[in-house]
Amino acid sequence: MKVAKAKPDKIAGRRSGRPTKEQAQQLTEHIIDVATRLFLETGFEATSVDLIAETARISKQTFYARFVSKEVLFAAVILKRISDLFVPLSQLGRLGPIETTLVQIGVELSKRALTPAAIELERLIASEAHQFRQLSLAYHESSVHTRDLVADLFSNAMREGQIRSTDARFLAEQFLYAVVDGPARALMLSGKGVRSERERRERIVAAVRLFLDGCR
């Protein structure tokens, strides 16, 4: 896939004079989006600042006004990925019976974690983990936070008698592997995934019911 050159003038709404705070933020997000596509297409090492600036239709001065280096931009790309994947989950509340809640969590996570772009980004993170230890740690800590949120749901379900008492964190780990981590790993290896949102939801519902059958 060849990354097309974007037109930041339309995205940032740039006019003569100093840009507004909103326009500046839009331009920063535009650079991150362009860099994400380039990192996925060519890898971190092969993606130069010159290529990013040329593709984003900005000057190198504009680039360095927002990111002091390519490494800092790469960090922004990964942190945005972490935010997109994990933050929405923390906003989900208890949705009623444990089955309903787990299905909704599985659906929300799979929307973000099982897309082709997300899988490619997983590969990129794995390939560059040795260079960016702090980013790898941040990604790991976010996944632990997700596990803890799910573990709390299991603990509540145990107190209410919906499932039998056991190690809530272990249940959370196994659940996340069944609905997200396992399918993501399979996609990374095979490149084949669920073709439609309906199929994805049906698979998650089946996985949740099978999982809960072992917990009740």
TrEMBL record:
<dbReference type="GO" id="GO:0003700">
    <property type="term" value="F:DNA-binding transcription factor activity"/>
</dbReference>
<dbReference type="InterPro" id="IPR009057">
    <property type="entry name" value="Homeodomain-like_sf"/>
</dbReference>
<dbReference type="InterPro" id="IPR039536">
    <property type="entry name" value="TetR_C_Proteobacteria"/>
</dbReference>
<dbReference type="Pfam" id="PF00440">
    <property type="entry name" value="TetR_N"/>
</dbReference>
<feature type="DNA-binding region" description="H-T-H motif">
    <location>
        <begin position="48"/>
        <end position="67"/>
    </location>
</feature>
<feature type="compositionally biased region" description="Basic and acidic residues">
    <location>
        <begin position="1"/>
        <end position="12"/>
    </location>
</feature>
<dbReference type="InterPro" id="IPR036271">
    <property type="entry name" value="Tet_transcr_reg_TetR-rel_C_sf"/>
</dbReference>
<keyword id="KW-0238">DNA-binding</keyword>
<dbReference type="InterPro" id="IPR001647">
    <property type="entry name" value="HTH_TetR"/>
</dbReference>
<feature type="domain" description="HTH tetR-type">
    <location>
        <begin position="25"/>
        <end position="85"/>
    </location>
</feature>
<feature type="region of interest" description="Disordered">
    <location>
        <begin position="1"/>
        <end position="23"/>
    </location>
</feature>
<keyword id="KW-0804">Transcription</keyword>
<keyword id="KW-0805">Transcription regulation</keyword>
<dbReference type="Pfam" id="PF14246">
    <property type="entry name" value="TetR_C_7"/>
</dbReference>
<dbReference type="GO" id="GO:0000976">
    <property type="term" value="F:transcription cis-regulatory region binding"/>
</dbReference>
<protein>
    <submittedName>
        <fullName>Transcriptional regulator, TetR family</fullName>
    </submittedName>
</protein>
<dbReference type="InterPro" id="IPR050109">
    <property type="entry name" value="HTH-type_TetR-like_transc_reg"/>
</dbReference>
